[in-house]
């Protein structure tokens, strides 16, 4: 029973890891750039949801859609003004730029919002379902359900819509996509906006059981990169698989090791995957 409880907890947490990692993988898959500022957009999404809850009384699960919309627009602006000029620059320039954006956003948040931790209160915050002796926390379950919803929406967008197909074509061969009349610059901007918007969405849905602060992204940045590398960098499906794997490994490891060492097994598995299957669990197809 203890094993099943840890497994369920791991799947619920891992589903959210998957959603906040999809955006990172999508941006790399379409634009071939590793966005080290990605975690800062999760922080911004949490603050948008917090303000929506505080001033409008909007539940964070509903505020997540507002977070997505606000950060999508903001992300498009960042891509247009800062990212686009360095897309063909050496990789080291891309790294320095995205790390710089991370530092600027975190410090701007500290200046504007202060260093206080901000939490929300919801009717289901401390509630749980008892399913055959397995306790399923309602905030974790609802966050997982929202994660599934957003993941399915991204899949349908990429597979079933003309813009999604154009985005996949851009990720496979930008030159051929341009010759076919696809505006690759628009696809890059849209992919970046959706990527960071999804991360903001994930940040909002975890707000009922976490607190928002300017540095909250630091707790997730390593997990995001671990999830996308485990799943396969550039693969949207891989990001979901990698996120769930990270959650399960973290949760099950607490059955053997103290919680302070829950990431020990995770990084052992991470190193083994890099050594034995560097392309990740799921082979990249296209964004």
From TrEMBL:
The chain crosses the membrane at residues 6-29, 36-56, 62-83, 95-115, 140-158, 189-210, 222-248, 255-276. The keyword Iron does not apply. GO terms for cellular component: plasma membrane. InterPro entries: ABC_transp_permease (IPR001851), BCAA_transport_permease (IPR052157). The keyword Membrane applies. One of its GO terms (biological process) is amino acid transport. It is a multi-pass membrane protein. It is found in: Cell membrane. One of its GO terms (molecular function) is transmembrane transporter activity. Keywords: Amino-acid transport, Cell membrane, Membrane, Transmembrane, Transmembrane helix, Transport. It holds the Pfam family BPD_transp_2. Belongs to the binding-protein-dependent transport system permease family. LivHM subfamily. This is Branched-chain amino acid ABC transporter permease. It comes from Kaustia mangrovi. The lineage of its organism: Bacteria, Pseudomonadati, Pseudomonadota, Alphaproteobacteria, Hyphomicrobiales.
């Amino acid at each position: 029973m203890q094993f099943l409880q840890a497994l369920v907890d791991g799947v619920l947490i891992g589903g959210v890891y998957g959603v906040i990692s999809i955006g990172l993988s999508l941006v790399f898959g379409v634009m071939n750039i590793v966005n080290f500022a990605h975690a800062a957009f999760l922080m911004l999404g949490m603050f948008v949801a917090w303000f929506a809850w505080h001033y409008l009384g909007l539940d964070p699960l509903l505020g997540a859609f507002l977070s997505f919309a606000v950060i999508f627009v903001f992300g498009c602006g960042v891509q247009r003004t800062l990212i686009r000029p360095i897309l063909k620059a050496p990789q080291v320039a891309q790294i320095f730029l995205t790390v710089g954006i991370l530092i600027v956003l975190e410090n701007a948040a500290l200046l504007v919002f202060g260093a206080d931790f901000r939490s929300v209160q919801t009717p289901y915050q401390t509630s749980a379902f008892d399913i055959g002796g397995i306790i399923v926390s309602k905030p974790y379950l609802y966050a997982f359900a929202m994660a599934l919803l957003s993941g399915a929406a991204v899949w349908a967008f990429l597979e079933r819509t003309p813009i999604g197909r154009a985005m996949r074509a851009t990720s496979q061969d930008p030159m051929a996509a341009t010759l076919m009349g696809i505006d690759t610059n628009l696809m890059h901007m849209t992919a970046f906006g959706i990527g960071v918007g999804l991360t903001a969405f994930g940040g909002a849905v975890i707000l009922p059981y976490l607190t928002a602060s300017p540095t909250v992204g630091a707790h997730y940045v390593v997990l995001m990169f671990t999830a996308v590398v485990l799943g396969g960098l550039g693969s949207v499906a891989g990001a979901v698989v990698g996120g769930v794997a990270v959650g399960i490994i973290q949760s099950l490891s607490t059955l053997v090791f103290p919680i302070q060492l829950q990431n020990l097994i995770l990084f052992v598995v991470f190193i083994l995957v890099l050594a034995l299957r560097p392309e990740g669990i799921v082979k990249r197809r296209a964004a």
